[in-house]
Amino acid sequence: MSHFEDIDEPPPEVEDSPRVDPIEAMGDRLSRRLDAIQSLLERDARAEANRERIVDRLHAELQEYKDDLLLRVQRPIFADLIQLHDDIGKMIEARPDVEASDDRSAAIRGILDSIRVAIEDILYRQGVEPFESEGQTFDPRRQRAVSTVSTDDPEKHRTIAARLRRGFAAGEKLIRPELVSVHTHRPPPDR
After folding, report:
1. 163-169 contacts at long range (C-beta below 8 A, 24 or more positions apart)
2. Residue ranges of the domains in the chain?
3. pTM to 2 decimals?
4. In 3D, which of 133, 147, 127 has the Cα closest to residue 67?
5. pLDDT tens-digit profile of 121-150?
6. Staple 161 to which of 29, 112, 136, 149, CB 3.0 to 4.6 Å?
7. Do the beta carbons of residue 176 and residue 82 sit within 8 Å?
């Protein structure tokens, strides 16, 4: 008899074997345990993603706090440099116009102007830049009205009469608003 004659019929001990049910039960338990492990892994992955979002948010908040702290520390220094810049500008404006016969006055004006530019360069290297607001309408968020000019024209009310000093900002943070003179409408008195 050859080995191939009995292939179509399973051996009787496999058909009637009581081991089939425990193997299926073990397979079911194994399947449930694998599902539980997969569920734990998915939960851990979600928890890890949540932790990463929290860490990223905290890092961003810390960076913002650090930047604000640094600006708060530097702001008085910037304000003093800006005041010196303004004072030098006033000195330049107070000097008479340069005439060819007055070389000393021209030299002093040139020195003052170069100091003023050097101060602007120092501020620029620290991230502080001068600005002038666009448009002619007074913007109290970025401008400070230091004087007013009366006008009979209601169309000019709250418009810029003169730009006196440029403002300075570090990115979006205002260091010093632009100093301006603003028109105010005052109708003529009735007679």
Report:
1. 163/132, 165/86, 165/89, 166/130, 166/131, 166/132, 167/130, 167/131, 167/132, 167/133, 167/142, 167/143, 168/78, 168/82, 168/123, 168/128, 168/129, 168/130, 168/131, 169/128, 169/129, 169/131
2. 128-191
3. 0.62
4. 127
5. 999 999 999 999 999 999 999 999 999 999
6. 149
7. yes
